[in-house]
């Protein structure tokens, strides 16, 4: 135990003395969260939209005037059939289409209920979301106004349709995403680099010829990064919660447990990488190409998995990050308990065991 | 017997690194492996410290079999690899403390062993290893290898790239360690360091060419070597090489070492030959044989 | 003086100083090197040798003082300096993963030799070093001694006036080491100036003049013969030990 403590102490020296890496280690999560958070702006101004008005009556005209009057929207053109919607979107000229059903005023008069559809281009999910919210409030306003002057209240039903990104990745998607990327990066890349560095320095040779057992060397190298990763996870979740209003509906304890599980998964991947690479450079390339890219591309962080081609959807299953993102979202946004995410948890556990097993199998107590 | 090597061979893929090497090192002996880069010294060290498994043969180190008793050997030997550079971002004191803890000991416990060496670097103990000079680094590395009081110490090229002053000091330290009963196996490409060992093995291209005490190796050399010096040293080598009975010509410090095919060299004839080639201030005298002379003639 | 040396000064150094923060690595050194001379630049590890050499080859700017190499100021005309010198070090000499021929072509190319010149030079080198069929082997697979001899020749491809050799023979076997020095002699006789550092004290004897640096200062500079006389010892090794030891 004393040996182990001595080892961990040395690792912390390495980490705290390398100011640049330390800065990246802790600066990066904060920078990423801020970047994603603020790049995803909630303000919109003069967004170009189109109107598809099947009703062409007084009521629809009044609403269109209201929309026109707001500084948020700019009515680019009027179209006359639904087929035109797609081509308008593809041109990229407009971000949304407002569709009034036939006999809008008549229905409002007779049935006290009529429908407006807001169709948005959700390739920019936040813009789409904001447009929906703003139109909703304009229409709501109009309805309220109308109801104060009438005896019988009417309701204008708003239907929303998202094109191209039906899942609608909300602003809350980036917190789990960034967390996953950072944990993967810190845990897998940093450990694999720090282990291969000892190989390069020649100190690994000395450690191997010492009475220290191989697993002690590995655990000793990995332990500090578990600690650092936990700090990072806490920082990211708190920033998401306090700065960007990300809800935290589930159990904090469960989230902590799942995060530690994922950290261990990533660390075991890092160890696996270090057993197959002999230089820091190889370890870095393997971590970046082999881990970061799949995490970013295939985990559902940036691109929704459901809209990927089938082979990629299948491939995404072997990415641990995918399961972790599902877990984090389920806990934070849906507030579910462990029983709902037991499948994902088990998959992560199994993956971890496989990585650890492979690492032990590959780890050499000799030089060959 | 502290180290006993029996017919060890090791190859990587198809390239043979060492072939059929056997030698023995007595307890408390300072044994030198002398040979240039690529002679197989590092492979031999790694094999003896259990980092590599030999293809053939076996060895006993400190009473343990290098193939079967890996754990025991790792507890009883100290090893300083060739490119060993310590942890650059740790201070002297931290490096030493780290190696002490991983070997399950403390600096205090074996302080008497490293004291001589450690006092020289102690004034800088809070300096990071990366900021030390070559000589100091080397002293620290030696302290780290000694901290667990090993029975056998393996030093792979500890003096390569180190200036003559630090090299001299290093060998003085090794002598003192020897007196404390530690068996030392050391390798070096510097031939002049060979005389500082109790016994040496000359190694080249993976094979041991000769094993003996440095004195015996020198005295058993039968050829006569002449020191030759003239006013034109550059041309001298060229001209001597064209002398009909020449055996070998090598620059050697301020002289050229010349060996003739004839046991009795006609010095007068050689002098006249050189004078014909416009050499003046010719000095020809019998030289003292060195390990390097022997090595070059193997 | 030996006949291959002329009186033309190809390196002139005056009060050359290099500071790193509070630490002065090179403390105002002055010396000159003549054309065709083999100049040994010795010193203990950390004495400031490497720093001084870096300034002379134009890759590090002096903090103060002047150095003129091959007629160019190292501070203001470092590009010209680089064109007129060759450089080879123990740590890096050639690319291990390229073949001998590829290395020659590459280095010829970066020194601006035409394809024809490269071809001619390659043929000459193969002839001179008796490379024969190893031209197609990767440099990494050659013995160290071969590599160093080859690297020396490559550093001379563009026929520089001065060639700087940083510990060219470290770890090389004794015979190859001497063959290497024979190459140096041949080159010096052609009029090339050789500036060399080494830890082998017998090699210091092969130099025309030797300087010994201790703690950023040149403590001694003369022919090996005069140095031995000055310190009343028999070998350069003892000169070195006496000098460096006294200072410590």
CATH topological fold name of chain C: Rossmann fold
Q: Indicate the overall shape of chain B.
A: globular
- Specify which chain pair forms the largest interface: B-C, 36 and 43 residues
The proportion of residues forming helix of chain C, as a percent range, comes to 25-40%
| CATH-assigned fold name of the largest domain in chain B | Rossmann fold
Compressed to H and E, one letter per element, the order of chain C equals EEEHEEHEHHHEHEHEEHH
> Number of DSSP helices of chain C?
9
Output the CATH class name of the largest domain in chain B: Alpha Beta
Average predicted local confidence, pLDDT of chain B: 90
Succession of helices and strands of chain B: EEEHEEHEHHHEHEEEHEHEEHEH
Give the CATH superfamily of chain C: P-loop containing nucleotide triphosphate hydrolases
Unreliable stretches of chain C: none
Side by side, the strands of the main sheet of chain B go 6-7-8-3-9-10
What's the total count of β strands of chain B?
A: 14
- Spatial strand order of the main sheet of chain C: 6-7-8-3-9-10
Q: What's the N-to-C terminus distance of chain B?
A: 28 Å
Largest sheet of chain C: 6 strands, mixed
Strand content of chain B: 25-35%
Subcellular location (chain A): Cell membrane
GO molecular function, one term (chain A): ABC-type transporter activity
Membrane topology (chain A): Multi-pass membrane protein
Family (chain A): Belongs to the ABC-2 integral membrane protein family.
Give a short overview.
The complex is a heterotrimer of chains A (368), B (298) and C (248). Chain A is α/β, with parallel strands linked by helices.
Outline the structure in words.
- Chain C: Pfam families: ABC_tran.
- Chain C: Keywords: ATP-binding, Membrane, Nucleotide-binding, Transmembrane, Transmembrane helix, Transport.
- The complex is a heterotrimer of chains A (about 375), B (about 300) and C (about 250).
- Chain A is α/β, with parallel strands linked by helices.
- Chain A folds into three domains: about 40 residues, no CATH class; about 120 residues, abc type-2 transporter like domain (abc type-2 transporter like fold, 3-Layer(aba) Sandwich), CATH 3.40.1710.10; about 200 residues, no CATH class.
- Chain A has 14 helices and five strands.
- Chain A has a five-stranded mixed β-sheet, sandwiched between helices.
- In chain A, β1, α3 and β2 form a beta-alpha-beta unit.
- Chain B has ten helices and 14 strands.
- Chain B is globular.
- Helices cover about 35% and strands about 30% of the residues of chain B.
- A six-stranded mixed β-sheet of chain B has the order 6-7-8-3-9-10, with helices on both faces. Chain B has a four-stranded antiparallel β-sheet with strand order 2-1-4-5, with helices on one face. Chain B has a four-stranded antiparallel β-sheet with strand order 12-13-11-14, with helices on one face.
- Chain C contains nine helices and ten strands.
- Chain C has one domain: Rossmann fold.
- In chain C, β9 and β10 form a beta hairpin.
- In chain C, the strands form two sheets. Chain C has a six-stranded mixed β-sheet with strand order 6-7-8-3-9-10. In chain C, strands 2-1-4-5 form a four-stranded antiparallel β-sheet, with helices on one face.
- In chain C, α5 packs parallel to α6.
- The chains are: A alpha/beta (about 375), B alpha/beta (about 300), C alpha/beta (about 250).
- Chains in contact: A-B, B-C.
């Amino acid at each position: 135990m004393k040996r182990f403590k001595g080892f961990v102490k040395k690792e912390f020296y390495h980490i705290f003395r390398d100011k640049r890496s330390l800065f990246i280690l802790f600066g990066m999560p904060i920078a990423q969260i801020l970047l994603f958070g603020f790049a995803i702006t909630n303000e919109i101004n003069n967004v170009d939209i189109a109107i598809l008005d099947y009703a062409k009556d007084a009521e629809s005209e009044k609403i269109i005037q209201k929309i026109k009057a707001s500084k948020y929207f700019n009515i680019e053109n009027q179209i006359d059939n639904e087929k035109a919607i797609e081509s308008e979107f593809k041109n990229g000229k407009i971000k949304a289409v407002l569709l009034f059903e036939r006999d809008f005023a008549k229905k409002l008069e007779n049935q006290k209920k009529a429908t407006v559809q807001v169709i948005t281009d959700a390739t920019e999910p936040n813009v789409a979301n904001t447009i929906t919210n703003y139109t909703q409030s304009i229409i709501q306003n109009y309805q309220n106004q109308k109801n104060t002057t009438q005896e019988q209240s009417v309701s204008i039903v708003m239907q929303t349709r998202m094109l191209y990104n039906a899942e609608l990745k909300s602003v809350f998607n980036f917190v789990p995403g960034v967390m996953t990327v950072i944990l993967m990066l810190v845990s897998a890349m940093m450990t694999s680099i720090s282990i291969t560095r000892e190989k390069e320095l020649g100190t690994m040779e000395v450690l191997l010829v010492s009475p220290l057992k191989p697993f002690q060397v590995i655990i000793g190298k990995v332990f500090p990064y578990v600690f650092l990763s936990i700090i990072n996870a806490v920082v990211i979740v708190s920033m998401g919660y306090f700065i960007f209003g990300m809800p935290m509906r589930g159990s904090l304890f469960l989230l902590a447990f799942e995060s530690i599980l994922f950290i261990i998964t990533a660390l075991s991947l890092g160890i696996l990488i270090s057993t197959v690479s002999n230089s820091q450079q190889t370890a870095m390339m393997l971590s970046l190409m082999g881990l970061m890219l799949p995490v970013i591309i295939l985990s559902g962080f940036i691109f929704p998995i459901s809209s990927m081609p089938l082979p990629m959807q299948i491939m995404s299953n072997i990415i641990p990050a995918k399961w972790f993102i599902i877990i984090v979202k389920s806990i934070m946004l849906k507030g579910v308990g462990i029983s709902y995410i037991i499948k994902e948890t088990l998959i992560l556990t199994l993956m971890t065991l496989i990585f650890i097993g492979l690492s032990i199998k590959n780890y050499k107590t000799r030089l060959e | 017997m502290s180290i006993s090597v029996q017919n060890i061979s090791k190859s990587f893929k198809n390239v043979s690194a060492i072939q059929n090497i056997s030698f023995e090192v007595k307890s408390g002996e300072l044994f030198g492996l002398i040979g240039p880069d690529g002679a197989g010294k590092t492979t031999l060290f790694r094999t003896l410290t259990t980092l590599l498994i030999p293809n053939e043969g076996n060895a006993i180190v400190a009473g343990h079999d290098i193939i079967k008793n890996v754990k025991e050997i790792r507890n009883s030997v100290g090893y300083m690899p060739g490119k060993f550079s310590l942890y650059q971002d740790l201070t002297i004191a931290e490096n030493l403390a780290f190696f002490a803890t991983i070997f399950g000991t403390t600096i205090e416990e074996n302080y008497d062993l490293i004291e001589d060496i450690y006092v020289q670097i102690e004034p800088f103990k809070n300096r990071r290893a990366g900021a030390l000079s070559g000589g100091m680094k080397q002293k620290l590395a030696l302290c780290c290898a000694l901290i667990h009081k090993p029975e056998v110490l393996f030093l792979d090229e500890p003096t390569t790239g180190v200036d003559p002053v630090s090299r001299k000091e290093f060998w003085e330290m090794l002598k003192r360690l020897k007196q404390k009963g530690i068996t030392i196996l050391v390798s070096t490409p510097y031939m002049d360091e060979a005389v500082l060992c109790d016994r040496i093995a000359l190694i080249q291209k993976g094979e041991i060419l000769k094993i003996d005490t440095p004195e015996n190796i020198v005295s058993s050399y039968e050829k006569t070597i002449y020191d030759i010096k003239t006013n034109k040293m550059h041309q001298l080598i060229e001209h001597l090489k064209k002398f009909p009975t020449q055996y070998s010509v090598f620059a050697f410090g301020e002289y050229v070492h010349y060996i003739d095919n004839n046991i009795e060299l006609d010095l007068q004839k050689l002098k006249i030959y050189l004078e014909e080639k416009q050499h003046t201030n010719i000095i020809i005298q019998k030289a003292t044989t060195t390990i390097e002379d022997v090595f070059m003639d193997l | 003086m030996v006949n291959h040396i002329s009186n033309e000064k190809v390196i002139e150094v005056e009060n050359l100083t290099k500071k790193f923060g509070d630490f002065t690595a090179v403390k105002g050194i002055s010396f000159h090197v003549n054309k065709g001379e083999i100049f040994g630049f010795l010193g203990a590890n950390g004495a400031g040798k490497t720093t001084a050499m870096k300034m002379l080859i134009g890759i590090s700017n002096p903090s103060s003082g002047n150095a003129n190499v091959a007629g160019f100021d190292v501070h203001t005309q470092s590009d010209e300096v680089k064109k007129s010198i060759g450089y080879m070090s123990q740590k890096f000499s050639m690319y291990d993963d390229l073949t001998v021929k590829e290395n020659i072509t590459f280095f010829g190319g970066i020194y601006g030799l035409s394809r024809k010149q490269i071809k001619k030079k390659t043929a000459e080198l193969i002839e001179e070093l008796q490379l024969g069929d190893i031209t197609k082997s990767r440099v990494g697979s050659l013995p160290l001694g071969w590599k160093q001899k080859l690297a020396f020749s490559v550093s001379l491809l563009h026929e520089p006036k001065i060639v700087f050799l940083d510990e060219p023979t470290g770890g090389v076997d004794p015979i190859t080491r001497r063959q290497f020095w024979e190459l140096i002699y041949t080159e010096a006789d052609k009029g090339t100036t050789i500036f060399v550092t080494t830890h082998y004290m017998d090699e210091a004897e092969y130099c025309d003049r030797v300087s010994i640096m201790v703690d950023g200062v040149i403590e001694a500079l003369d022919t090996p013969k005069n140095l031995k006389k000055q310190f009343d010892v028999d070998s350069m090794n003892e000169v070195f030990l006496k000098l460096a030891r006294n200072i410590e």
